């Protein structure tokens, strides 16, 4: 039925036909027998069956539009959850890092499977995205194992800070493969991040050999630093792959690939190393469960953030892990940072804050 114009309204008033408010919930207009009943298409209404209602389409578009800065907030929450999980990893010292990763994968799998069944997303994913999901699982699980191993080799703060050279690799890789713009602001924030990492780690080739002499086991520290750096590379590629996948794949499915491939990889490595052992202490068992819980929460919020935000700003905001790591190190390990560490932390905070403010200002224009 065609919408009535002003003339049609006047004619219906003169003929005594009552006018009803078509916006009222109980209104239903019956088509006349001589008229052909038209079925409205998707997004259409009975007043304009051939095209979507403009106001309704506009409302749906506004509802789907993400809140400015929401992706950065998700990243901040993810950073906090990951930091708490890393604290528990540091507390568990009698279990190999690969076995800790396996326990985390098992726990997350028990939660992910019901979620996938409920959301009816399947376990394989879209045909065109499976290769990216597979790469995400392999690289993401390797990054997890390397980070846990770095936590066991060096201090919590050092491992966390070194791993956050990740934004440097992420921005470059995203610029190359995703054609994302690498602006001067991105270069500035990256420079702040690198400066903060250098000030906190204080490598001997820049700060002198006395740094190595004050460390009781500097070779182990170097090994942990290299492992953390390898984690940064794998994590950067994972972030870019998640950004490439975007919203075409449910974020739960992305975590599913990460969990199942990580578990298979951990079982193979543990079988080769012969490092299978169950924790004897009940507190360690509790820590393993909490590692799985906080790791799952961090993965969920990180995946959601990367669906609505570019990979570079997400990686920069994720450097808030550094701040949380130093806070936890002071509180739980009674390890006070030096002034160099404080200066480096301020650089990292300035980088993350600058990225968030720039994103907010750009979204409000």
Automatic annotation (TrEMBL):
Domain EamA: 70-201, 223-352
SUPFAM superfamilies: Multidrug resistance efflux transporter EmrE (SSF103481)
TM helices/strands, residue ranges: 70-89, 101-119, 131-151, 157-178, 185-205, 225-243, 255-274, 286-303, 315-333, 339-357
Keyword Transmembrane listed: yes
Keywords: Membrane, Transmembrane, Transmembrane helix
Entry membrane topology: Multi-pass membrane protein
UniProt key word Lipid biosynthesis: no
This protein's GO CC annotations: endoplasmic reticulum membrane; plasma membrane
Listed Pfam families: EamA
Compartment annotation: Membrane
InterPro entries: EamA_dom, EmrE-like
Protein's name according to its UniProt entry: EamA domain-containing protein
Species whose genome carries this gene: Muntiacus reevesi (Reeves' muntjac)
